[in-house]
Each structure stands twice: as C-alpha cells, then as structure tokens.
Here is the input.
Amino acid sequence: MRQHHGFTLVEVLVALLIMAVMAAMGWQGVSGMARARDIGSAASERTLRLSAVVGQWESDIAAIYDNPVVPGIAFDGAALRLVRRNGDGVQVVVWALREGRWQRWPGPVVQRSQALRDSWMQSQQLQGQEPTQLQVLDGVAAWQVYYWRGQGWSNAQSSGDTVAVTEPAALPPPPPASGASAPAGGASSPATGTAGADSGAAAPGGGASAAAGGASAPATRLRSLLPTGVRLQIDLPEGRIVRDVMLTPAA
Here is the structure.
C-alpha cells in the first residue's frame, strides 16, 4: 500500500512562529520608516516656519521709523516694541515671549501723532490673549536683544542711548488768512499778537499776551537714539539662533 507523508503538528507550529517573527520585524521596520517620515516632515515644517518668522522679524527691524513722538524701538526684557513704516502710515509692532510662545502683535496703521501715541499706550497693556495677537513660534526657551552702539554690542536694556534735544513744546498757531480784516475798532488782538492800524504803541501787558499767544518757547527733553544695528538671540530646542540686522531709519 502507498504511504502518504505530511507535516506534523510541531512542524506547523514552528513554521507559524517563524512567520510571526518575520512579520513583526517587518512591521517594526515599516513603523520606523513612518516615524522617520513624520519627524522629517515636522522638522521641515518647523524650519520653514522659523525661516518665515525670522524673515518677518528682520523686515520689522529694517523698517523702523525714527520719530519724535514715541521711541522708535524699546526692549524691556519681555517685549520689544517698535514703530515701523507701513505704506502711507506707520504702525506699532510688539514681539513678546510668553510661556515659551513667541508672539507678534501688529498695531493699526496710523498717520497722526495722537493716534501713534494711543497705539503705543495700547501696546503696553497687552495680555497676550488679544484676537490680533499672533503666535508665531513655540518652544522658545529664552531670548535676548542687543544693540550695536559705537564699536560693540551692548544689552538693549542698558542706558546711554539718549540725547538731549530741543523741540517746540507746542505747535505754533496757524497764520491768519490773507486779506483778513482787522478786529473791530482797530484794537489790538492779544490772541494773535497783531496790532490794528489805528492802535498806538502796544502796552506792556499786550506784548506779554502776544508772546503767550504765539509759538511756545522751545523745550529740552531726552530722546532715545536708534542703535546702528539690532541683534536677536533666541534659544530653541534645536539650538541657539543669532540674527543681526543693520538699521537704515528714515525720519
């Protein structure tokens, strides 16, 4: 009689075990490749984001507007405020570090001195939760800003960046319209400091009033000078990044 030979139960179990081990090894390889792909994609996205953020920072610094109303740039250790040119106006921009998040707040574009003062005051009251507050980068451990003054870099919070300047305490009143008639009766006008045609020598009191009504006497105050350059030093999980920007301010 012909005998039929087959696999024993032990041989089948051994074969299944070997196949399971090979499948597990293959799955680990595929999983490792997927993780490497995800890590590489996240690193690439973070690099692109970091490049865009640093580019925006350099653009803000390069467009600083030096003005007599508010400081062109000011750093207090936690936030950096600056005034930059933007189209037909200027705007206050704030870069701040809050709980590891680097944020940027762009203020409204303004064209008047009072509006610029109001925007600057608003920038000093930010809490970090405003709708216009942009979270530009996560995982920032620390940052520091340095100014280039003279022949070297110095801490942006150090003194020695102010100078005494003389500016009018108030704007002079506008000149009278051409052909305007003199006040009734030809009397002198102490509000404008001009005398009528029929008036005689101005009285001492009238002269004082005229001086008060004209341009105010110049006042001397301290004004911050812009540095020649600004250095950003920021600590990230990938390492420390340093960027230097030279200023070309336009008053």
Summary: Residues 21 and 129 are 53 Å apart (CA to CA). The first helix runs from residue 9 to 62. Residues 54-166+220-246 form one domain.
